[in-house]
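User: Second chain of the day. Same drill as before.
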Amino acid sequence: MKWRRPTWKTVFGVAVATFLIVVIGLNFVGSEKHVLQTPAHAYGIRDATFERVVGSLLGPPIVQGNHVETLVNGDEIFPSMLEAIRSAEHTIDFETYIYWSCETGRSFANAIAERAKAGVQAHVLLDWVGSQSMDDDALALMRDAGARVEIYHPLRWYTLARLNNRTHRKLLVVDGRIGFTGGVGIADEWTGHAQDPSHWRDTHFRVEGPVVAQMQAAFEDNWIKVTGEVNHEPHYFPAIEPRAGGVDAQMFLSSPAGGSENMEIMYLLAIAAAEHSILLEAAYFIPDDRTVEALLQARRRGVRVDVIVPGPVNDAKVTRYASRNQWGMLLSAGVSIHEYQPTMFHCKVLVVDGYFTSVGSTNFDERSFRLNDEASLNVFDPAFAARQAELFEQDLARSRTYSLQDWQARSMKERLYESVASWVSSQL
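Assistant: Same format as last time:
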């Protein structure tokens, strides 16, 4: 058979197909996994070794003298954040994943615009995926007032290889002195007090003290990536004296651009150090093999392990299916899993042995551990941990315990859905 030169259409088609395959591969093949085995129990969570490892091996140093206020649900969270914005004298730095078109979004845009008009340097960093439904008028309002609004990894030809890397961080820093982090996005779903299925359950945190400088640095980390600008003036990093009676804390970061595995390692080390109890509130709970093994090892040491996850009111059903696919081993080992009943449960809180608490944007899944930019505030203090444990018990009272018998009685349809969902669990 005589060879024929390919037509330009064929060549173009192959080139396009190859390009798409490469882009998909770059975005959906997980990052290289450096953690090959689960850390063993070598010290307790209150042992000074744990703090040295977390502060030296993985993250920024742990700083003393901080005040962290717990804000429960939108009725407490949004007024506190808006009050801080309206009180800004020099700088507002705001990074978030979710910013939807809604009354809450307009309130934040108005508050930021008002201070920008007054001469406050306002920087807003929004994730391209999470802010897709944002009101264009809100964007224009802030920009017209003088605020800088930037989008993280928008759809551009030069960002195609990074489209699957989203900023999931929730950070607000005002005047370099007041910081906020936690689970909330800017949407009406977070308003109220979790009173019905339309109003979500979540927790956020207001922070003062030296650790706010680390929160400021966390914002600058992505601002530099997007704009190339370095904000280093004194108003961004003022001198902050430790507060008497304050807590030890650190702002812990992870990103595929550097240290993507650090967040998972930190979680694994905290679980490995547990000797009495692990309380986990997880909006999206899809542990990989290493974290499953870490929880199983904790149970073999006699550690109480309780996990609260979303129940029937769920914003991502596929995530619920992918999660349940792995529950058999955990339930058999005595891990207690509870499904929150009244509304969508969006909390992200880990409490170990009534001493170490990690809160922030990080979900207990591979997307948070390897694909997203995340930020978590680690607090080393028994009183703060006790407050989170108190909230955990309140949430537990509104949850239904999911038993091993429930898991074994799943229908064939549910098992099929769970099996299919597990195929894409690294992307959820």
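The chain has a mean pLDDT of 90.

User: Great, on to the next one.
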